[in-house]
Amino acid sequence: MRIYEEKALKDFDFWSGGADRAANLTDEEFDSVERLFEELYPDGMSDTEINDFFWFDFDTIAQHLGYEDEEDFDRKHDPNYIDDDDLEEYIEEYWREYLDTIFEEQGEDGLRFIVTDLFGDDPEEVLVDYKEEAFDESPRGIFYHYLNVRYDSSELMETLFDNDQGWDVLDNFPTKEEFRDEMMDKKKTSK
Questions:
Q1: Of 101, 86, 104, residue with least CA distance to 170
Q2: Fewer Cβ atoms within 10 A, N terminus or C terminus of the chain?
Q3: Looking at residue 119, what is its pLDDT?
Q4: What's the CA dihedral at 159, 164, 169, 170 to 10 degrees?
Q5: Which string of DSSP letters, residue by residue, matches 87-136?
Q6: For residue range 47-79, what is the model confidence (pLDDT) as tens digits?
Q7: Angle 81-30-50 from CA coordinates, rounded to 5°
Q8: Does residue 57 sit in helix, strand or coil?
Q9: Which residue stretches of the chain are H helix?
């Protein structure tokens, strides 16, 4: 004999992997998933079906809630999550450190490449326009100075992370989500 009981999804007793997934939902998200289940299963669901849906098909739930997938859901529910606006606070320091590495390891050629291939700027104009401001008047020093001062954080975010252009063009540069994860880890360890 099957016994079904009427119960709000947020009051359901999940177990194992289903419990791990359910623990991260807000009450509003539970309400939304409950409406989804009522649409998909108008005759109701067994305890096992509910738990297994959370455990093995959580991508469907995450997408229903407006996330890309389970990984996106987890990232955005992390207490150290950094949204795009706040991520800008981290880019300038990260960019300087990246340029320091290029300056030391690749010199003028690496910096010239970034000026032309990433930003699409004319290197000869840069050499003329920024010579007086640079601490080092060599081409390497001028390109380094230019790349450190020319673009503000929002311009860097747009250039580096729209369509993951930085990752696509530059050596050892993260995608936006990899950058976000790294900055979230940094935020977590600084607490």
A1: 101
A2: N
A3: 95
A4: 90
A5: HHHHHHHHHHHHHHHHHHHTHHHHHHHIIIIIT---HHHHHHHTTTT-SS
A6: 999 999 999 999 999 999 999 999 999 999 999
A7: 115
A8: coil
A9: 16-22, 27-40, 47-56, 58-64, 70-77, 84-105, 107-113, 123-129, 139-149, 153-161, 165-169, 176-189
For 43, list phi and psi in degrees, rounded to 5. -95, 5
* Its pTM surpasses 0.70: yes
Matching residue, tokens 């359901």? 12
Measure the CA dihedral 153/156/157/160, to 10°: -160
Two tokens at 37?
Answer: 């289940």
